[in-house]
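pls design
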């Protein structure tokens, strides 16, 4: 799938990285209050409560959800369960520099999975765009100093985030296929709720393992409540809605390049909320990532 990039589609694919960056910053701020995988379960549980009034019909026996349980079970495993769980697990043993550096391989994973499993050839423009995009993200992660990359040491967490990135790329490709009932596909709330229903099963399983294997605890209060409201409405519901639309309109390969905007938005939000001021290299990196998106969209 390869389509021209319209301004509306570009906006749809830009909103999720912005919200996901906010999710990372907020998640780091409340890390002493709630275990990371439990936070993921709680946000999807609240998202479920938000979505049910909008698309409760999809839970009925004749909606097509239950007869297509394999389709939604796989989507939810990759997009709701595995991606977030592996990302949080990675941060337990790896540094943010390593995690986001490995995650910058997203466009490469997307192009490779498309070529291997979805019979989608890689165009020269897409390969060049991937190079621009990864170089731009690397500049941010190295803080404009290539010598910083020499200090990177791979640990088990880096392999977790590598697997997480592959899961998200596969999830994006699966979104582009219409293997579910048309009624569910055409109703965004129903389509997302269908994934969340099974995703709650996966995320509760992972959260249960977290509580059984670690000294997990929750400190309830308004900071955590406000965080849950944001991560459920923004990164969970709104971001997944925009991402799904964007993938359908532009294709998974193009969407993969927009995902690399996340660390740039994270740098901006970190400056605003964590006191980390942006530098000149942020502008250079932003220009390179935008160049990657533009080049990859050329025919």
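designed seq:
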């Amino acid at each position: 799938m390869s389509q021209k990039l319209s301004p509306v589609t570009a906006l749809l694919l830009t909103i999720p990285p912005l919200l996901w960056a906010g999710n990372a910053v907020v998640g780091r701020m409340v890390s002493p209050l709630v275990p990371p995988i439990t936070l993921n379960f709680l946000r999807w549980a609240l998202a479920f409560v938000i979505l049910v009034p909008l698309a409760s019909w999809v839970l009925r026996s004749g909606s097509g959800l239950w007869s297509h349980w394999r389709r939604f079970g796989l989507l939810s495993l990759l997009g709701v369960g595995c991606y977030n769980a592996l990302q949080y697990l990675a941060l337990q043993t790896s540094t943010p520099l390593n995690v986001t550096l490995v995650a910058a391989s997203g466009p490469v994973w997307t192009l490779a999975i498309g070529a291997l499993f979805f019979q989608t050839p890689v165009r020269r423009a897409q390969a060049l765009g991937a190079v621009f995009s990864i170089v731009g993200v690397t500049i941010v992660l190295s803080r404009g100093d290539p010598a910083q990359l020499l200090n990177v040491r791979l640990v088990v967490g880096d392999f977790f985030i590598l697997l997480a990135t592959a899961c998200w790329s596969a999830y994006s490709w699966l979104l582009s296929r219409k293997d579910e009932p048309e009624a569910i596909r055409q109703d965004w709330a129903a389509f997302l709720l269908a994934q969340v229903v099974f995703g709650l099963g996966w995320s509760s399983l992972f959260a249960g393992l977290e509580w059984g294997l670690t000294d997990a605890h929750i400190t309830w209060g308004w900071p955590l409540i406000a965080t849950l409201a944001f991560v459920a409405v923004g990164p969970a519901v709104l971001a997944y809605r925009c991402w799904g639309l964007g993938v359908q309109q532009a294709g998974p390969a193009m969407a993969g390049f927009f995902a690399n905007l996340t660390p740039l938005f994270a740098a901006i939000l970190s400056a605003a909320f964590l006191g980390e001021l942006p530098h000149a290299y942020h502008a250079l990196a932003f220009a390179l990532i935008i160049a990657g998106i533009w080049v990859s969209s050329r025919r």
